[in-house]
Amino acid sequence: MLDVLTHFTPFSDLGSADLKIIAPLFSARTFSANAVIFEQGERATCLYLLTRGEVVIRYKPYDGETMTLNRIRPGGVFGWSAVLGNETYSSSVACNEPSETLVVCGDNLRTLLVEHPQTGRLVLDRLARAVSSRWVNAQAQIKEMLNASISSQQPPLGKGAHDMNTPVVSPKEEQLKSLLEQLSAYIEQFHGGSVEFVAFDGENLKVRLGGACLGCPLSPSTLHGWVEGTVRQFFPEIKSVEAV
After folding, report:
1. pLDDT per position in the chain (244 positions), as tens?
2. Which of 180, 213, 182 has its CA nearest to residue 196?
3. What is the 3 state secondary structure string of 206-225?
């Protein structure tokens, strides 16, 4: 078990003492070809490490057909909703071929943080890095869509100026709101969180994280690695993105 865990990025650089602590948390599960490991909307309980075979991640929008988001091969990790504190899985996972996994329950990881704080923090740090990397890859997939959407929106200068009691909203502020709305929908799809516009002073953007992001130990990665990273791709002149 110890050697197998080191094949997965979140645990590859853990010392032997830490590996011995976390190894008992994992159990092995096997699945036949075409088996559904979990369904979108099912209660999120476990994180899966794929040791053999291939699985596909599928997502069904409420108003569209089911789509394949990704294919996971040995060394891959899925079921992040259980770690992020979501009540349900945001996607479905099924086997393309007979597959084997190592499984750990989200509750066990949280208990680990209480009973072995140092090891727990190390594991959470590595899981945060893995999630951030996953979101960076996801950014590349939707960057073109976001860019086209933001570029096409040209709100009128001084919108609302005809009413002396209505604040004037700048085009950049409108574009930031539009970007955050689309980004929030994408974050909700992946792990049930949300982000909304609060204020913009021309240099600093303030947002509010919600949903599964509230109280989540990985929320700093959401804010800085995902939200701020995406915002600064389109608006590099913004100096900071802060959560309130």
Report:
1. 667 888 887 788 888 898 899 999 999 999 999 999 999 889 988 989 999 999 998 877 666 677 777 788 998 888 887 776 667 887 899 999 999 999 988 788 778 888 898 888 888 777 766 665 555 555 554 455 445 444 444 433 333 334 444 454 567 788 888 788 877 876 776 566 788 899 998 888 999 988 877 777 667 767 776 788 778 767 778 888 888 8
2. 180
3. EEEEEECCCCCCCHHHHHHH
Give the position of tokens 């988001």: 69
Tokens linked to 124: 């959470």
Beta strands in 66-192 (DSSP E): 67-72, 77-78, 92-95, 99-105
- Structural domains for the chain: 2-115 (2.60.120.10), 158-243 (3.30.300.130)
Question: What global pTM score does this model have?
Answer: 0.58
Q: How many residues does the chain have?
A: 244
CA distance 102 to 37: 12
Structure token pair of residue 180: 């955050």
Helix (H, G, I), strand (E, B) or coil at 232: helix
